[in-house]
């Protein structure tokens, strides 16, 4: 079992899990469950949960897999002789962990080991990214990118749905009352905090539309007299 006992790395790994779980909570209970379309909620909820599960599983594999650590203290005379080096062949010894460093191996100050094909030490997975766990790290970042893109698309659809719903209610209120006041633009919604905020965003557009409608329905002059060749309205 490979696990780095680094306080900063453990805290960052826990934060990573909490962020994914928080995103799942927001998507399910704020965006999907209040939706009136059952098929939309089931499909997007299932897809998001699958991607989140794969992301967390890849995170665990990247965190708990030996990245390719070189055994400590193997830079002994007997071990070097067992390598059967050719004449002129050079081997490098790490002065910090007393191990023979293979090609593209680097010493990690956090893991306190030389890691084969080390890329970097990632605190978010609390491990080095090396020869053995690079695949899991790439999968983790890919799944995080996919759930982020999925959530972003759902936010856009969620906004458009709220915008259309508010607009429909506003038009229906205009048809019932003949005019829309300030209360009809900002109030009249019992669906939570999101609708008043969106109403504030689209309020200028609605006011402009209502002003156009009132100008179209304004009555024209119906009579007048002509004195001195001039027309005078009597409305």
UniProtKB/TrEMBL annotation:
Q: Which residues form the signal peptide?
A: none
For this record, an example GO cellular component is:
membrane
Give the EC number(s) listed in the UniProt record: 2.3.1.225
Task: Give the matching Pfam families.
Answer: DHHC (PF01529)
Query: Membrane topology for this entry?
Result: Multi-pass membrane protein
GO MF entries: protein-cysteine S-palmitoyltransferase activity
Provide the protein's localization.
Answer: Membrane
* Domain Palmitoyltransferase DHHC intervals: 93-168
For this UniProt record, the keywords arranged alphabetically read as follows: Acyltransferase, Membrane, Transferase, Transmembrane, Transmembrane helix
Broad class of the protein's primary localization: membrane
Q: Name the segments for region: Disordered.
A: 211-235
Similarity comment: family membership: Belongs to the DHHC palmitoyltransferase family.
List, alphabetically, the PANTHER family matched: PALMITOYLTRANSFERASE ZDHHC16
Name it: Palmitoyltransferase
Organism of origin = Cottoperca gobio (Frogmouth)
């Amino acid at each position: 079992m490979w696990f780095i006992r680094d306080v900063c790395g453990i805290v960052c790994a826990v934060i990573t899990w909490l962020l994914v779980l928080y995103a799942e909570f927001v998507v399910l209970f704020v965006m999907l469950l209040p939706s009136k379309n059952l098929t939309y909620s089931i499909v997007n909820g299932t897809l998001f949960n699958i991607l989140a599960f794969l992301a967390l599983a890849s995170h665990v594999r990247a965190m708990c897999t030996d990245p390719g650590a070189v055994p400590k203290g193997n830079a002994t005379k007997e071990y070097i002789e067992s390598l059967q080096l050719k004449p002129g062949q050079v081997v490098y010894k790490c002065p910090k962990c007393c191990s023979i460093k293979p090609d593209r191996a680097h010493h990690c100050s956090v893991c306190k080991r030389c890691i084969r094909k080390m890329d970097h030490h990632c605190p978010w997975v609390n491990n080095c990214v090396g020869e053995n766990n690079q695949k899991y790290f790439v999968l983790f970042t890919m799944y995080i990118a996919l759930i982020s893109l999925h959530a972003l698309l759902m936010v856009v659809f969620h906004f458009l749905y709220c915008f259309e719903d508010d607009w429909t209610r506003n038009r229906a209120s205009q048809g019932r009352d003949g005019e829309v006041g300030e209360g009809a633009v900002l109030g009249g919604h019992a669906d939570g905090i999101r609708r008043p905020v969106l109403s504030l965003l689209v309020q200028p557009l609605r006011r402009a539309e209502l002003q156009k409608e009132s100008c179209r329905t304004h009555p024209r002059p119906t009579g007048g007299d002509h004195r001195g060749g001039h027309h005078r309205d009597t409305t």
